[in-house]
Design brief:
This protein has 463 residues and is of the alpha/beta class. The protein has three domains: 136 residues, no CATH class; 120 residues, NAD(P)-binding Rossmann-like Domain (Rossmann fold, 3-Layer(aba) Sandwich), CATH 3.40.50; 190 residues, no CATH class. It contains 16 helices and ten strands. The strands form three sheets. It has a six-stranded mixed beta sheet with strand order 3-2-1-4-5-6, with helices on both faces. Strands 7-8 form a two-stranded antiparallel ribbon. Helix 1 packs across helix 2, helix 1 packs antiparallel against helix 4 and helix 2 packs across helix 3.
Length: 463
């Protein structure tokens, strides 16, 4: 079965389990704790309708239904425990705290009863469903479609080790040779092409997992391959050298697994990504409403500064390379790029007097809250660039394309640290900060960047 069907099965059984656990809890609380006869009143029916849906929403935000086919029992127990604690606390404080009780001990008993019933019933059902899932993947022809990059003896060694595992989940589609000469690996799996064809091979064969069977110490070649294939969706694994083993970069989730490093292209947990998007929408909606007076004043100031439109629309490259029109207050005279794309500088004569102040305070960026609401941008993320400059940057640093794997932001670490770039070299310097952000992003880091952006706005110290 596909990952989507398994996700729907998990959703269905989670809903049924939540319905069962709430019904049992409601009955036991009435009969054992409150010593009252059980009755099917409005409170019971409202709970039966809303509580299971709320649990499923909580699970979805937690990332339970993300990559369901890669679920394993230890992860299931961990997710179930964390969500049961959080959900039980939420239900207790929203629905149960106002209930009349004889002693405070009744509160503790109610919470423990709710948590215990929900956790045990959910864990049992999920473990059973996960066992069926794992067994189905381990069947021949149902594993993750895997491509090996490399055809030398090291590739053969990795292939043989994985194939010999008692719990192998890889279905090898073939390999891509990077040395120009076929080796022993061609006697086991087909050669699907060379390195120049790797993107086409991955797409044509619906590859889910790529194992790069070259030494991780070969940094330049490894970097070139990762830049080309790391789209944030593929599972990519590489061979570890002794340095990364001692540094603790090898993470093990299966005692039967091979010694491989899984490349984590996005360190932000799924639940944080969900909360980040909710924050984007809520804060942007609030900002648009509260800033209406400012928008009117700024529109008037821009209109009086020079002839032309109030807003400046420019095509930028967004998430997954999709273009969108960024919205800014106009800070330059009309037709400032009549001779082609040009980056601004500190003493750029094309910038109006009002525009210079707006750039220092970042006020020209405020209309981009609308871009956030439209789904083009986030509050925090790498600054979006034009395709014209991306083409120039990629010639020097191809890894810039990693920045297009996430939504671009109104502000970024590179923007806070470096400000507006005046040339491609400065873009490359700013890119380093954004790449570091990408590899370390979290809600805490986002909040910190927003805090420093607010300081820049009030102090007017933007570059």
């Amino acid at each position: 079965m596909s990952g989507r069907i398994w996700a729907l099965l998990f959703i269905l059984f989670d809903w049924l389990t939540a319905l069962f656990s709430w019904s049992v809890f409601f009955y036991l609380r009435k009969s054992l704790i409150e010593n009252e006869p059980f009755s099917f009143g409005d409170s019971f029916y409202l709970g039966v309708f809303f509580i299971p849906i709320s649990w499923v929403i909580l699970y979805a935000m937690q990332g339970t239904y993300n990559e369901t086919r890669r679920m394993f029992r230890l992860r299931v127990l961990n997710l179930t425990l964390m969500s049961s604690i959080a959900g039980s606390i939420l239900i207790f404080f929203t629905l149960l705290l106002d209930d009349y009780v004889k002693t405070y001990q009744d509160y503790y008993q109610s919470f423990l009863l709710l948590f215990g019933i929900h956790f045990i019933s959910t864990a049992i059902v999920r473990l059973g469903l996960t066992t069926l899932l794992v067994n189905s993947i381990r069947k021949s022809g149902h594993g993750f479609k895997t491509l090996i990059v490399g055809g030398n003896d090291k590739a053969v060694e990795v292939y043989s080790e994985l194939l010999g595992l008692p719990k192998n989940v890889n279905q090898f589609a073939g390999y891509v040779n990077i040395n120009g000469v076929d080796h022993q690996l061609k006697t086991f799996i087909p050669n699907l092409g060379n390195l120049s064809q790797i993107e086409e091979v991955i797409k044509k064969n619906d590859i889910e997992e790529v194992i790069i069977a070259i030494e991780s110490s070969d940094h330049n070649r490894l970097k070139d391959i990762l830049v080309r294939i790391d789209d944030g969706k593929l599972k990519i694994k590489v061979l570890p050298d002794m340095y990364v083993i001692l540094a603790g970069s090898v993470k093990m989730t299966n005692i039967y697994g091979a010694l491989l490093i899984e490349i984590n292209s996005d360190p932000m947990p799924f639940w944080q990504r969900a909360v980040k998007r909710i924050m984007d929408l809520v804060l942007s909606a609030i900002a648009v409403i509260l800033l209406i007076p400012f928008y009117l004043f700024s529109a008037l100031a821009v209109k009086m500064s020079s002839p032309g439109p109030i807003f400046f629309l420019q095509e930028r490259v967004g998430i997954n390379g999709k273009p969108f029109n960024i919205i800014k207050f106009r800070t330059m005279f009309v037709n400032s790029e009549a001779k082609g794309p040009q980056l601004s500088s500190a003493d750029d004569p094309r910038i109006t007097k009002i525009g210079r102040f707006m750039r220092k305070t970042r006020l020209d960026e405020f209309p981009q809250f609308i871009n956030v609401l439209l789904g083009h941008m986030s509050l925090v993320g790498p600054r979006p660039e034009r395709q014209f400059y991306i083409n120039q940057i990629v010639k020097v640093e191809p890894q810039y394309l990693h920045l297009t794997r996430v939504r671009p932001g109104i502000t970024s670490w590179g923007q806070v640290k470096y400000g507006y770039a005046e040339n491609v070299e400065q873009m490359l310097q700013r890119m380093k900060f954004d790449l570091i952000y990408l590899k370390n992003r979290s809600l805490a880091l986002d909040i910190k960047i927003m805090f420093y952006t607010i300081i820049i706005v009030f102090k007017a110290k933007g570059k």
